[in-house]
What we know:
Elements lengths: L2 H11 L4 E4 L6 H10 L3 E4 L3 H15 L3 E5 L9 H9 L4 E7 L20 H7 L4 E4 L6 H15 L3 E6 L22 H17 L3 E5 L2 H4 L3 H11 L3 E3 L14 E4 L7 H8 L3 E5 L20 E4 L3 E4 L2 E4 L3 H10 L33 H13 L6 E3 L3 H6 L7 E2 L10 H12 L4 E5 H7 L14 E6 L4 H6 L13 H7 L3 E5 L2 H13 L4 E6 L7 H15 L6
Amino acid sequence: MRLYELLFDELWRHGVRHIFGIPGDFVLNLYEALEHDGRFRLIRLSHEPAVGFAADGAARMTGGLGVCCVTYGAGGLNMINAVACAYAEESPLVVLTGGPGRAERQPDVHVHHEVKTFESQLTVYREVTAYAAILDDPHTAAAHIGRALETATKVKRPVYLEIPRDMVNATIDAAATGTSVDLAVDEGAVDEAAREIAQRLKSAENPVLIVGVEVHRFHLREQVVALAERLNAPVASSFLGRGVFPTLHPQFVGTYLGVVSPPALRETVERSDCVLLLGELVSDTSLGVSADALSRTNLLIAVARDVYVRHHRYQNVPLDKLIPRLLASSDLPRRATASGAFRDHVSAEAREGGADGEPIKVRHVIHALNDFFAGHLEVPLVSDTGDCLFAAVDVRSNEIVAPAYYATMGFAVPAALGVQVTTGRRPLVLVGDGAFQMTGPEISHAPEYRCNPVIVLFNNTRWEMLQAFFPDAGYNTTVPWPFSTLAELWGGRGFIARTPREFREALAAAWAGDTFAIIDVTLARGDVSPILRGFVRAFKARVYEAPEAG
């Protein structure tokens, strides 16, 4: 069997139907094989970072593998940031790159795109993947392919396979499958952890659940909803886990960001005598700038393979084993709560729609978006980083895809293309003008792939989130672009929204259309979302203004 045949068979078996990429000379043989095979839909973009973000968006929304195919060196290394984001946020990408042929690897002759050594790219990728290999041996290639795909599937992180160009059509030993990726499970620890958590929940007077991103990655959403309904307890999300628990569920009370959260939400979470955090470790963004109110005495943490209860640590306890065990526990309480006891805590400012003709503000955008999502429950929201991400905390969409922890700019537009190409679902996108200038032109590919996302662009002609930290800074301005005109030139529709009324009308018209659309929301400099304002204030107090240690 030829290498490409086994590779494509295995990708197909793992549910892959789309491959995102950009051709280059070291990967042309693989592209020829892709075209000859004919099973996969190839989605070509213009810049490798966007290829990675698009595949990441696809993986997050489908719950399967996102596959990228780029050339060696200039292509593969150009995609590192996107793959690093996927690693940090547990998204299973498969990175396929070309590479110099075996005969080209002479110690006294360099090839173009080579950096320090022929293995430089492999060395770099080992830092941002869970498995990385060069398929340069016919006897081990099949084993590497099998192990890489199994690792991505089980660990939910990127993997890397470099295919020398003279190996694509090489005959390989297909029977040499290698050892499987077996992740240890301590059944006794699973039982003990479930028993201790259930007992803590049973004795608690006001338990709270905080749902993190791993609940989505490990396909546990329905089970966690069942757990929440069994407990009849309020449910918050982490920042990265925004949208994992249905935001329109009656028990959902908001996204908890520590001291940044609305007062009523802080009271709900911080006065709880038992907070169960499912699927995420504590970080500066997962629970906000300060999670000090959640002490080890009232915080129970269950992440991918570990459980922490006070001073107890249970290892090799997979989340997908723990949650079913909890649901089956006879100790798990069944609470009755009066109807209407839960309130979704949106920032007070975001409840104001604004007068029709006044200058539009971020809070007006949030209010209008919540009206939109109330009538479009099925629409996924894709957000970039920046103030649009903090605004998204107050936006009540049921599903959100965003780089909330790694916080890289330029994610949203290509990720939205990946979402729609692979699922057929039309997304709404939030992006700032600075992030759009990085990868936004990829929207020009939308007509070719029959994608029609609606892009809401926060335009204040600078990197406003960065400016918020130091308001007098002079280094955050961006070059103004005619965003609405560009949309028309690229085959979509363009709108400019200067007032709340213009925004509502633009959003309705954009959604009614059958092409992609960009709504250029002209915001005043210094106007930010309520959540970002609180985040900056708390972050500066903790990081920039805190007394030096020692």
